[in-house]
Amino acid sequence: FYASGVRDASELHVRIGGQEVPVLYSGAAGHFPGLDEVTVEVPRSLAGMGDVDVVLTADGQTASPVHIHIQ
Fold first, then answer.
1. Which of 3, 28, 32, 45 has the highest Cβ tally under 10 A?
2. Can you point out the beta strands (E) in 1-71?
3. CA separation for the pair 20, 31 (Å, rounded)
């Protein structure tokens, strides 16, 4: 995912469909100056969930949810 203002966060959480998922990387998106990148691992347990919300929380500040579709 791409976001802004998360590269210096000391604590970052991502929930997909209400389930906490592991954050593999968060930092600068090298090819887009000023943009941050968050890479997560999507567990197999989410397969077939359909439309779900992705919620990112950085240092206690929760961003607006993003809707995705998981097949």
1. 3
2. 2-3, 12-16, 19-21, 23-28, 36-40, 50-58, 61-62, 66-70
3. 28
Tokens found for residue 71: 């097949």
* Assessment of whether the complete model's pTM goes beyond 0.85: yes
For 15, the token pair is 């929930």
Q: pLDDT at residue 31 above 90?
A: no
CA distance 34 to 44: 32
Tokens of 40: 């997560």
Question: In the structure, what pLDDT confidence band is assigned to residue 32 with cuts at 50, 70 and 90?
Answer: confident
CA within 13 Å, CB half, 53: 8
In the chain the first and final C-alpha atoms are separated, in Å, by 18
